[in-house]
Design goal:
By secondary structure, the chain is an alpha/beta fold. It has a domain at 4-209: Alpha-Beta Barrel (TIM Barrel), CATH 3.20.20.70. It is 42% helix and 14% strand. The protein has 14 helices and ten strands. The chain has helices at residues 4-9, 26-34, 49-60, 82-92, 108-113, 125-134, 157-167, 181-189, 199-202, 211-219, 242-254, 260-267, 271-276, 300-321, and strands spanning 15-17, 39-42, 67-73, 96-101, 117-122, 138-142, 172-175, 195-197, 225-228, 236-239. It has an eight-stranded parallel β-sheet with strand order 1-8-7-6-5-4-3-2. The protein has a two-stranded antiparallel ribbon with strand order 9-10. Helix 8 links the parallel strand 7 and strand 8 (195-197). Helix 2 runs parallel beside helix 3 and helix 8 packs across helix 14. It is globular and about 60 Å long. The relative contact order is 0.13. The model has no long low-confidence stretch (mean pLDDT 97). Bound molecules: flavin mononucleotide. Flavin mononucleotide binds next to strand 3, strand 8 and helix 9. Residues 18-21, 23, 42, 70, 72, 100, 121, 142, 145-148, 175-178, 196-200, 285-288, 290 line the site of flavin mononucleotide (FMN).
Amino acid sequence: MKTRITEMFGIEHPIIQGGMHYVGFAEMAAAVSNAGGLGIITGLTQGTPENLAKEIERCKGMTDKPFGVNLTFLPSVNTPDYPGFVKAIIDSGVKAVETAGNNPAKWLPALKEADIKVIHKCTSVRHSVKAESIGCDAVSVDGFECGGHPGEDDVPNFILLPAAAEKLKIPFVASGGMADGRSLVAALALGAEGMNMGTRFIATKEAPVHQNVKDALVKASELDTRLIMRPLRNTERVLTNAAVERLIAKEKEMGDKLSFGDIAAEVAGVYPKILRDGDMDAGGWSCGMVAGLIHDVPTVKELIDRIMAEADEIITQRLQRFRAA
Ligand SMILES: Cc1cc2nc3c(=O)[nH]c(=O)nc-3n(C[C@H](O)[C@H](O)[C@H](O)COP(=O)(O)O)c2cc1C
C-alpha cells in the first residue's frame, strides 16, 4: 500500500510501532521493520545516550530496513540528557524520530539539518496544528482510547481523526485503538495515511517482554484499562491490577491534595518489574482499550501480513458490496 507515510519513511506498509517504555528495544523495532512497517526504539528506556547508540547499532545488525527512535518529553523526576540523546540519534544515521510529550521545537533544527523525518505524537488537533507550524514532517494523532498518555481532552478517534484531517496539510497516522485491518481501513477513511500501534505489538512473539504480559493482554477485555494520575494532569491509561486499584483509591481519598509522592510506589520504576520480570501487580503500566481486540500472540510478520490482507479484503470486497449497483 502506498501513502504519504510509506513514501516519507521508505516503508512497505503504513504501519508504525509507537515508542514504548521497556518494550521498544532492538528486537521489537527490527521485527516491525523487517515485516515492512516502521519499528521504533524507545530512546529513554536505554538510560543513556551511549546505551541508545549501542541499541541502534544492535538494531542495525538485525534489519537493513528503516527504523526510528522515540524521544519522549514528559514530566520526570530527573531530566534526561536530551542533548546527548539527540546527538546519539544524529550520529547513528537513523532517519526517523518519533517525538512525544512536550513541544519538540527546540530539537527540530538539529534533526532537520541531519535530514531526519520527525513525526510528533499529539492528543489534540491544536497540538497537531502546532506541530505542523513548527516544521514537523508528520503527526501521530493519538485518541483517548490509546495506551499511555491520552492527554486531558478525552476526544476519541472517531472525532479526533476527521477533526485533525480538516486542519492538517502534513500527513498523519491514526494512533490509539488500532489492532487490525479494520482499524487501518477506518483510519484511512477518516483521513489518516496509516496507523500507529502500541499495545497490539506487545502481544507478539518477538516483543521482548515477559510472557505474563502477553497472556494478560490476551485475557483482558476493553473494560480492563483505567486512567491514573488525572489529578496531576499527567493522565495515563493503564491495565488494571491490584496496585492500580490501590492508587485509584488514594486518588479518590486525597482529591486535590494528591502529589506525586503519594503514588510513587505504584508508578515509579515499575516498568522493568512488570514488562521484564512479569510481576503483573507491581504497578501501573500503559495499556490501551484495544486489549479487548487482542486474542492471540502471532509473530510480527504474521500480524502485519494479516492486517494488510484484511485491509485489502475490506477495501476490495466488503466496501464494494455497499456501493449502489
Ligand atoms: C507499555 C507502553 C509503553 C509506552 N511508552 C511510551 C513512551 O515511552 N513514549 C511514547 O511516546 N509513547 C509511549 N506509549 C504510547 C505508544 O507509543 C502509542 O502511542 C500508544 O500505545 C497507541 O495506543 P494503543 O496502545 O491503543 O495502540 C506506550 C504505550 C504502551 C502500551
